[in-house]
TrEMBL record, chain A:
<dbReference type="Pfam" id="PF01381">
    <property type="entry name" value="HTH_3"/>
</dbReference>
<dbReference type="InterPro" id="IPR010982">
    <property type="entry name" value="Lambda_DNA-bd_dom_sf"/>
</dbReference>
<feature type="domain" description="HTH cro/C1-type">
    <location>
        <begin position="4"/>
        <end position="58"/>
    </location>
</feature>
<protein>
    <recommendedName>
        <fullName>HTH cro/C1-type domain-containing protein</fullName>
    </recommendedName>
</protein>
<keyword id="KW-0238">DNA-binding</keyword>
<dbReference type="InterPro" id="IPR001387">
    <property type="entry name" value="Cro/C1-type_HTH"/>
</dbReference>
Amino acid sequence: MNHVREYRRAQKLSQMALAEKVGVARQTINLIENDKYNPSLDLCLKLAWELNTDLNTLFWRDKKES
Amino acid sequence: MKKLDKKLIKWFIGKNVFVDERIQKEVGIFATRTVFVLFVFELLFGFGIVVYASNSQIADFETLFYISTFVQAIGVLFLVYGFMLIPMAKKRLLVKEVSPEDKKEFVKRLQHSWVRIAPLEFVGFWILHSLFYFNEGFFNVLFSFKEIISALIFTIFFTLFMSLYEKMHVKTIKDDE
């Protein structure tokens, strides 16, 4: 599971607000948070910038988890 | 993705849908599948018609032509619906989300947009429908009272249907859902 939801909540952002910031639909953010959609690298970077973190923190998972 | 491609997707799935990378990807998958199925359908159908026409004694080729073009048109329509639009609707790709406070205004704008293009629908239907009877004199048919009334009825029903259909696909945002 990625950490997009935790970081979004920590920033007090709704899914809609984050979606508008990164230029996607709200449903896309919801699917990413639930690990049902693999975002492009470009979108991952945008998410990391908007949530003031880096790709590793947001998306990294160990081999056992995947 | 080119602007033209985005416009094409919007034209196909509805102008109110937000086209982001996920939508593009899903549309791409469904479109590839549909193209493949259409190719197989056209190939088999065309081959079947050729075999049938060359091996059986057909007296009326005109009827065969009408039937085969009709089956083709219906087949293409069903395949596009079955392999593209229904799976897209199932994945909720055709849903437009708006905030509760904006919903009323958005639906109003949606209905106005259909009313704005109603004259175009009227003219389009009027000319196309008259073309069907052009052997009876195109302009005589075009300016007949019956033709104008049928175009008017079509425009009213189509506008109502499309505004209701698009209204149905407008959902209120529920975070984390």
